[in-house]
C-alpha cells in the first residue's frame, strides 16, 4: 500500500473561505471563547469518566458556547451502526457526538492533545495510526468488535478534511469492519452554512476556534441516508463507493 493511499492529503487551503459571513462583535466572540474554556475545564473530566450522556452533554455545551446550531434530518441510526460521513471540520465530530452515541475513529495524534485526547480515549474513541499501515488490520478488528457489541462507530473515510463541495475519495479499508460484524452502514452528509467552519491546510485548532467564534450564527446540518446492509463477503470498495454516492452534494451547500 503506497503512502499516498494510506495518508490522504487535501488540496483545500485558505482560499476555501470566501469571507461571506456576518461577524459577531469582538466582545461577543471573546465571550464565546471564554465560555468554551470554562465548558472544557468543567466538562472534560466528567465526560471522560462517565461517557454516554455526559459526553453528549459536553458536545452540546461546546456547540452552544460557540453559537453553533445543529439540524438533523433523516432516520436515526440504530445502535451498532457504522456512521460514515464527509469531513469538513473538527466540529463534525462534536456535532455527531452531540446528537448520537457513537465512538469516533480519530487520527492517532489526537490522543496527545491536552485534555481532549485523554477524554476521547476514556470515552471509547478508536485511534488510527496512518503512519503504520501494518496496524490497519488491528484497527479494523477493533471497530468490528465495537459494532458487534452494539456500539455505533463514527468514521470519516476521506481520511482528512475537505472544503465543502470538494470531496476526497472514501477509503474502503474500515468498511471491512461493518462487513465482518454484519453491521449496517449509515452515510451521513455534514454541511455548514459558512465556509468559516472549514478546518484545512495549516490551520491550528486554536485558529479555527477563534474563527468559528467570530461567526455571528453558524448552522451545521447532518442528513442521514437510509442504512446500507452489506451481505457477508461484500466488496468493501463497492460499499465505500455506494456510501459516498448516497451523500450527494455535501459540504456547505447542505446548510445553505
Number of strands: 7
Radius of gyration, whole Å: 17 Å
The end-to-end distance, rounded to whole angstroms, is: 38 Å
Strand portion, in percent? 5-15%
The order of strands across the largest sheet is: 1-7-6-2-5-3-4
Number of helices: 9
The biggest beta sheet, please? 7 strands, mixed
Using the alpha-carbon principal axes, give the shape: globular
Average pLDDT across residues?
A: 86
Structural class: alpha/beta
Helix % is 25-40%
Stretches with pLDDT under 50, minimum 5 residues: 1-5, 252-256
Q: SSE order, as H and E?
A: HHHEEHEHEHEHEHEH
Structure description:
It is a single chain. The chain is α/β, with parallel strands linked by helices and 256 residues long. The chain is built from nine helices and seven strands. The chain has helices at residues 3-6, 26-50, 52-65, 91-99, 116-122, 136-148, 175-181, 205-213, 236-245, and strands spanning 68-73, 82-85, 102-107, 126-128, 152-155, 185-192, 218-224. Strands 1-7-6-2-5-3-4 form a seven-stranded mixed β-sheet, with helices on both faces. The longest helix has 25 residues, at 26-50. The protein is globular. The termini are far apart. Keywords: Acyltransferase, Lipid biosynthesis, Lipid metabolism, Membrane, Transferase, Transmembrane, Transmembrane helix. Residues 81-193 form the Phospholipid/glycerol acyltransferase domain. Pathway: Lipid metabolism.
Amino acid at each position: 500500500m503506497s503512502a499516498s493511499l494510506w495518508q490522504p492529503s487535501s488540496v483545500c487551503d485558505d482560499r476555501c473561505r470566501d469571507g461571506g459571513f456576518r461577524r459577531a462583535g469582538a466582545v461577543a466572540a471573546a465571550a464565546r471563547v471564554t465560555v468554551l474554556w470554562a465548558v472544557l475545564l468543567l466538562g472534560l473530566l466528567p465526560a471522560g469518566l462517565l461517557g454516554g450522556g455526559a459526553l453528549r452533554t459536553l458536545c452540546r455545551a461546546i456547540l452552544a458556547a460557540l453559537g453553533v446550531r445543529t439540524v438533523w434530518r433523516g432516520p436515526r441510526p440504530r445502535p451498532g451502526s457504522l456512521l460514515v460521513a464527509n469531513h469538513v471540520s473538527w466540529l463534525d465530530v462534536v456535532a455527531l457526538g452531540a446528537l448520537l452515541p457513537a465512538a469516533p475513529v480519530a487520527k492517532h495524534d489526537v490522543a496527545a492533545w491536552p485534555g481532549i485526547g485523554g477524554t476521547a480515549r476514556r470515552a471509547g474513541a478508536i485511534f488510527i495510526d496512518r503512519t503504520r499501515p501494518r496496524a490497519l488490520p488491528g484497527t479494523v478488528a477493533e471497530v468490528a468488535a465495537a459494532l458487534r457489541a452494539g456500539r455505533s462507530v463514527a468514521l470519516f473515510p476521506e481520511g482528512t478534511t475537505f472544503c465543502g463541495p470538494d470531496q476526497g475519495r472514501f477509503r474502503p479499508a474500515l468498511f471491512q469492519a461493518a462487513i465482518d460484524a454484519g453491521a449496517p452502514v449509515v452515510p451521513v452528509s455534514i454541511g455548514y452554512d459558512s465556509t468559516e467552519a472549514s478546518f484545512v491546510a495549516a490551520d491550528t485548532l486554536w485558529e479555527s476556534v477563534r474563527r468559528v467564534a467570530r461567526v455571528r450564527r453558524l448552522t451545521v446540518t447532518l442528513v442521514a441516508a437510509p442504512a446500507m446492509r452489506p451481505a457477508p463477503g461484500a466488496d468493501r470498495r463497492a460499499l465505500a463507493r455506494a456510501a459516498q454516492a448516497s451523500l450527494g452534494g455535501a459540504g456547505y451547500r447542505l446548510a445553505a
